[in-house]
Amino acid sequence: MQRSAVEDWLSDPFAFLGLHDGSVRTYQPGAAAVEVIARSNGRVVSRLEEVSPGLFVGSMKKPIAYRLRVIWPGGVQDTEDAYAFGPVLGELDLHLFGEGSHFELACRMGAAPVTHEGCKGVAFSVWAPNARQVSVIGEFNAWDRRRHPMRSRGASGVWELFVPRLQPGERYKFAITGADGVVREKADPLARATETPPATASVVAAAPAHRWGDKGWMKSRAERHHPGAPISIYEVHAASWRKPWRDFPEAHSWDELSEQLIPYVKDLGFTHVELMPIAEHPFGGSWGYQPLSQFAPSARFGPVEGFARFVDRCHQAGIGVILDWVPAHFPSDAHGLAFFDGTALYEHADPKEGYHPDWNTLIFNLGRSEVQGYLISSALYWLETFHVDALRVDAVASMLYRDYSRKEGQWTPNVHGGRENLESVAFLQRLNSIVAERCPGAMTIAEESTAWPGVTAPVESGGLGFSYKWNMGWMNDTLRYMERDPLYRGWHAGDIGFGLVYAFSEKFVLPLSHDEVVHGKGALIEKMPGDRWQKLANLRAYFAFMWGHPGKKLLFMGGELAQPREWNHDRELDWGLLQQPEHAGIQRLVGDLNRLYASEGSLHHTDADPRGFEWIVEHDPASSVFVFLRRSFHGGAPIIVALNMTPEVRRGYRIGAPEAGEWREILNTDAEIYGGGNIGNAGAVRTAPHPCHGRAQSLELTLPPLAGVFLKYEGPPLEPAA
Fold first, then answer.
1. Average of per-residue pLDDT across 504-521
2. At what angle do helices 532-548 and 472-483 cross, to 10 degrees?
3. Which of 394, 448, 495, 662 is catalytic?
4. What per-residue confidence (pLDDT) applies to 250?
5. Does domain 229-600 have CATH number 3.30.413.10?
């Protein structure tokens, strides 16, 4: 038998291999001999003849359940014949997959350890509708695509094969003969585990065997994620936060990270930790934002079960877990999704739609129901299997606009001639609706940098249905203000105030993310003008403004240390800075701000309610002072936040008071414990009946230089004794 003849039956192996009309055929290239033995008693029922290289044929008088005994030059292998088994996937599986509504793909397709027709093994399946032939390859068959060609499931485009006796831990890929005739070895798009990069094989994985201890957390999660709840997020790149495994720089571990990170986050008062993408990605320098395995936690951190333990431990410590999730694009690595079956399958064929010029990546074709289903199934896998509390959806703006980062003539309008990507809109609405239905209390958070209307509005009213949206405008405007020399800030008060014009148009997260401390942008502390003292004071004042401002909070790791260098993903944070009192003071301030934000209802109950915010001093160009009021309608005293954005002390600065009585100074960023000069208001101030700012009562404040002060209303003055 010539190789060309082998190719003939590779595309339909079940019509040729196995038992047919009293004859058994098996292809075992390199074997010395093959016998057919009865499954019931191990008796040899037929000795097969090698009729051509690798092809063994023999007769079996009556059909029985059988195994193959393959005699190799180095030993003997007893195994069931893969071509004696029927399909694993049912018609319902294929139907749901085709319409993009099979949301259990992680356990049904890819590589699923199963017991099939009484035999344990692994059921492999892959979507490759335009392939001429598909085989599963791995160490178990010497990576020889001729050994395990797969069964085509017709119009579904799915190929499958049950390989008996395989167990979790096996490395594998799919060898796909594309529509163009080229054979490509591809990692499994549905793999739940992978080799550690730079190796590229998928790994057969059992479902994570973790006994969860977070029942209390899951029961209270919806309340913790309410728009009126305090949410303060610590953004982390897991591989570079801290390296307690210093002696083994490549041996990252979820368990080691748990021991270090969880108490740290808890001690600083953050409510959530957000992990930059942990789905497997080939290039570490992408920080995970170019993933290829949408279902596999990166092997860089050890076994999959380790991630489940990490999430559980976070929950038991009262900390939520947010994952960055990337449905917008994927890299073009040869072993990945690109040109998967010899055609543009996961991506658009037209580069005007399918290629992302900013990131040199390919764009998911969300017009295909199978691709939509693949991505939604991925989202649900993280949320349901690992109890993840939220997905921060990356690069939403790039998904919403067909002309995103493209010049005239480089993009294709939608069916109405517009620039909106209608397929992406439909996908995001569908995603958010399904997550809300299946994962009560879980959040979706959009990284969306434009003014697209209704990002957090309900889907039923035409919105996208996200729980929260990153407020990129606030971040850009306020950082631009802080970067200015205080001498010129008076002419740019709008950079501080403009965000309040639209602060309640969406449910916002205020992000100071990793994007602001890389690629030459400088660290947060280095964005601040002036000498060292002024830089530190500016940063403290900025944090006070952020935590006093309506909206949930997000800070990228290192910001709490006032780390002066840009973030480098190959280095851990500069923890030695904490030996310096000024840096330790910044860290302490972040913790105190978090605790104040969580304990004072006025600072979080109305994060998304315009009734809870009121300007007292919005525009004072001569002094660069800003003063505003935060209120709660669900308990908690009102709080005044006063900011002096110049290095000059403002003594006797009078502001209108919303309530008469005593206002206690509950936080002052100029306090000595934070590295300041300890200028303030001696603990409290009382109103006087001097009208100011349209109010009958007023307060006379001392505003420290480059500082923020929080004043809490303690009640009206006591009546003098008779």
1. 94
2. 150
3. 394
4. 54
5. no
